[in-house]
Amino acid sequence: MIGNTVIKEVMVTGEPYFAVEQAPCKQGKPKGNEDEVLLSGIFELLQIEVECESSGTQQHKESCYSKNVLRKKKHWENTVAAKKIKRKQKKQKKKENLSSQSALESLLTKRDLKVITKEKLLKARDSGPRICIDLSMTDHMNNKEISRLAAQIRRLYGTNRKSTNPFRIYLTSFIPGGPIHSECLRMNDGFTSYIMDMVEESYLDLFPRETIVYLTPDSDCVLEDIEPNKVYVFGGLVDESIQKKLTYTQAQENSVQTARLPIREYMVKKVNLKNYHSEILAVNQVFEVISTYYETRNWQAALQSGIPPGKGYVIRTSVAVSSSTASTSENKCTQ
């Protein structure tokens, strides 16, 4: 308090502010100009201090705001630049992965592609590996199962057409006018133009027994490799009632070598709600595995490509694969 004037410091919006109030006058003689001069000087000092503090606070805020904006801007620019680089690398990798054949096919018409595909399939008849679908078990299937088998044959043929190294495919015990023949004609457009060998004879009459490998999930032998001098036979059977070891028993009775896909060696059972795990595959799924392996020579890639997740299996880790393969080496068959 100076004279009859009271100076109060209050906070306004977080900054100091000084209010001046007039105190009640006391009886007596005023001090005069001395108090007024002193009061005026104090007001000037207070005004300078407040302005400095206010100015400093504002500059600090602007400085912090500017730094924050610059930091966010720099982060955004770096993110955009990284995405551009990533997209560029992805495009480059895609270009590098395109084979000369794929690049050529992109420039060809559909008619040209059909001609090339036909030439590949015809060439496979002379030098390609051989796959045989044994259709001698149609009497073990109902009409619904026969229809499903006809659809699987269509998918198998489609996979073979797209393959870089197609197989020569035989349909054996394929009786004209029989149930499976009728269903193939009814369900598969252009079936009569399929480039595959459709014969009435049994596979046992077509190939020497020492060249036959019958693929069945019940075999004790593990399929290690695909050899061009062998004929790999699939059982043409859609069996919803699961007649156990039907294909395996027939192969054993005919003194034919058997083998199974290396599912147990490269895959493990995955926990699922139904606790369902099955090594029984459709003929087109078995072919997908065989075809992929023949092109990649990689069982893990082949099994992952051909076996659907619904079968309840997933690929093992690399460590587990090596230990499992070593532990089951005694079950590998010499082809």
Main beta sheet: strand number and arrangement? 6 strands, parallel
How many individual β-strands?
A: 10
* DSSP strand content: 5-15%
Shape: globular
In the sheet with the most strands, the strands line up as: 5-4-3-7-6-8
Class from helix and strand fractions: alpha/beta
Give the C-alpha Rg: 42 Å
Residues in helix, %: 40-55%
Distance between the termini: 111 Å
Overall mean pLDDT stands at 79
The tally of helices reads: 11
Order of helices and strands: EEHHHEHEHEHEEHEHEHHEH
| Unreliable residue stretches | 9-23, 25-31, 48-55, 319-330
How does this model look, in words?
The structure is a single chain. By secondary structure, this protein is an alpha/beta fold. The chain has helices at 33-97, 100-105, 110-127, 143-162, 179-187, 203-206, 246-253, 263-266, 283-296, 299-306, 318-327; strands at 5-12, 15-22, 130-134, 168-172, 197-198, 212-215, 231-235, 257-259, 267-269, 313-315. The protein has a 6-stranded parallel beta sheet, sandwiched between helices. The protein has a two-stranded antiparallel sheet with strand order 1-2. Helix 4 (143-162) packs across helix 5 and helix 9 runs antiparallel to helix 10 (299-306). It is globular, with a radius of gyration of 42 Å.
Element layout with pairings:
Layout: E1 5-12, E2 15-22, H1 33-97, H2 100-105, H3 110-127, E3 130-134, H4 143-162, E4 168-172, H5 179-187, E5 197-198, H6 203-206, E6 212-215, E7 231-235, H7 246-253, E8 257-259, H8 263-266, E9 267-269, H9 283-296, H10 299-306, E10 313-315, H11 318-327
Parallel strand pairs: 3-4, 3-7, 4-5, 6-7, 6-8
Antiparallel strand pairs: 1-2, 9-10
Helix pairs in contact: 4-5, 4-9, 9-10
